[in-house]
Amino acid sequence: MNASMLSYILFSCLLLSVQAEYCGDREIIRYTQHLLGDSSVSCPCRQTAISSCSCLPIPEHGHELACFVDGTKHLMENNKSSNNVITRLYLTFQAQLDRKLCKKLSHDDQCQYKTKGNVKEFLKKILTTYQEIEK
Length: 135
Prior knowledge:
By secondary structure, this protein is mainly α. The chain has 5 helices and 2 strands, in the order ααβααβα. It has a two-stranded antiparallel ribbon with strand order 1-2. Helix 2 packs antiparallel against helix 4 and helix 3 (about 65-80) crosses helix 5 (about 120-135). The chain is globular and about 35 Å long.
């Protein structure tokens, strides 16, 4: 094995280890704050199907990532105005779950929750979760 091959292998290992820690916390915090500033996300959650407001899972500890995937997917599918920010959040959460990125979050595929909340409550949960990771 020559020196260039060894350096390539070491560099690849370094990239993989850095990628495993990638949480994208700053981007996620910025996107979430942008969505929270949007006044259309504050309507109340009603468990009935008649309501146009979404009831989204507020995850139990250790199930955040799977619930964030489920919740943002629901928002993407049910928002009349397709929002690029929601799509970016969904794709980021899905990548973190699939590739087991962000070791600070559990990668359990099941979203477990005891309560549901409106969009604003769901976004606040995302925000506080990623603010804790950033610290």
